[in-house]
Write a structure and sequence with these properties.
Blueprint lengths: L1 H9 L4 H13 L2 E2 H8 L6 H10 L3 E4 L5 E4 L2 H28 L8 E5 L1 H14 L3 E7 H16 L3 E7 L8 E4 L3 H8 L1 E8 L3 E8 L4 E6 L2 H24 L1 H8 L2
Parallel strand pairs: 5-6, 6-7
Antiparallel strand pairs: 1-3, 2-3, 4-10, 5-8, 8-9, 9-10
Helix pairs in contact: 1-2, 2-3, 2-4, 6-7, 9-10
């Protein structure tokens, strides 16, 4: 019962109002005097509490002598609160985002993310928000986790350019295997992920072999385009290696 009282207080009931309403639900059609005895609300406070519940349209006063009170059915009360709160959230969603979008063009913040779960959650969120185009550089260890959202985005027409560090392929968009996974893992002791979405957002993540991970994301236009160019550069390098073979390998090794 205490949990229900607390939840009603979260809906802007006072503790006495919650207790009075619950007592009316149990008994119904009782006087203020009887309600005070059955609810735990002090007799000196009961009519003040009843008047507030009447104003909130949580209860009704019956035309009787002595005056008695009855509760409005819970489904009606909760439906009204649900409607009111949904309207508040809808209005806030529009109002807050309108304010936020006004300064997006000058948004130079760089946000840090720690932990694999948080990083992967943000990656899935960004890909899900894509409208046109995604550039992604990713290892096999991460691709399986984001595969479902990639397919959903592809189905709605988003173009994908993917550099794979590993053997897995998704069969969508334009995919390129990097081919130097073992060497890079030895040199860096870590896997990286780079994601650019619609030239609006970029996320760069770092997954270390010891299990720790960190990432940054930003809407800064310069950094977004830099990350996109980085992935495109990798694609050009892979294509050159495919076309020129050993000659291209020798050129890259010399640098």
């Amino acid at each position: 019962m205490q949990k229900i009282i607390q939840q009603l207080q979260n809906l802007d009931f006072t503790q006495y109002e919650a207790k009075a309403y619950l007592a009316l639900l149990r008994r119904g059609r009782i006087s203020g005097y009887e309600l005070a005895k059955n609810s735990g609300v002090p007799a000196s406070k009961i009519y003040q509490v009843l008047n507030r519940l009447l104003e909130k349209e949580i209860i009704v006063a019956l035309d009787s002598e002595p005056k008695k009170y009855a509760p409005i059915p819970p489904e009606e009360v909760l439906s009204r609160y649900r409607t009111d709160y949904l309207k508040i959230f809808t209005d806030l969603d529009k109002g807050l985002n309108r304010i936020y979008k006004k300064q997006q063009s000058t948004n130079n913040y760089i946000w840090n993310i720690s932990g694999r779960v948080s990083i992967m959650h943000r990656i899935i969120e960004f890909i899900g928000q894509a409208d046109r185009q995604v550039h992604l550089s990713v290892w096999d260890e991460e691709i399986a986790e984001i595969e479902p959202v990639i397919y959903r985005a592809n189905e709605k027409g988003v173009e994908f350019y993917i550099v794979h560090y590993g053997k897995q392929k998704l069969g969508i968009g334009k995919e390129y295997r990097h081919g130097r996974e073992h060497q890079i893992r030895q040199e860096r002791g870590a896997r990286r992920i780079a994601l650019e979405v619609d030239e609006k957002k970029v996320l760069l993540g770092h997954f270390l072999e010891d299990g720790s991970s960190n990432a940054v994301w930003t809407s800064n236009k310069g950094l977004v385009l830099l990350a996109k160019d980085y992935i495109i550069h990798d694609i050009y390098t892979i294509r050159m290696a495919e076309i020129f073979g050993q000659a291209a390998d020798e050129i890259f090794k010399s640098h």
